[in-house]
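Prompt: Have a read of the protein record below and flag anything odd:
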Amino acid sequence: MLIGELSRRTGVSARSLRYYEAQGLLEAGRGANGYRAYDEGAVLSVAKIRALLRAGLSTEVIREVLPCARGEQPGFDWCAELREILAGELAVMNGQIDALRASRGALVGLLREG
């Protein structure tokens, strides 16, 4: 299928699909005319990518874990080091949440003083 059809079927813009390809998340063949050609599996791949992005993972991390993801709302085949990668990402997110809470507390304090 061409990029326009994949875009329609997934609700993801052609620009995003090209970005996923550039990041090594999605593969496309090329037709004789040079147009991108995707197989049926690309629809599921895009669904997995979108779900992992919603989980807050970067494209770099998604590239590492995507081979282990299965299903639209991916479950995982717990391949080597996957749990460690995801636990590391969770630790980073927890640190960011803690920093935001501290910043929020400081801002609330400033507003109370004024």
Helices lie at 3-10, 14-22, 41-54, 59-65, 82-113. The chain has five helices and four strands. The chain has a mean pLDDT of 92. Strands lie at 29-30, 36-37, 69-70, 75-76.
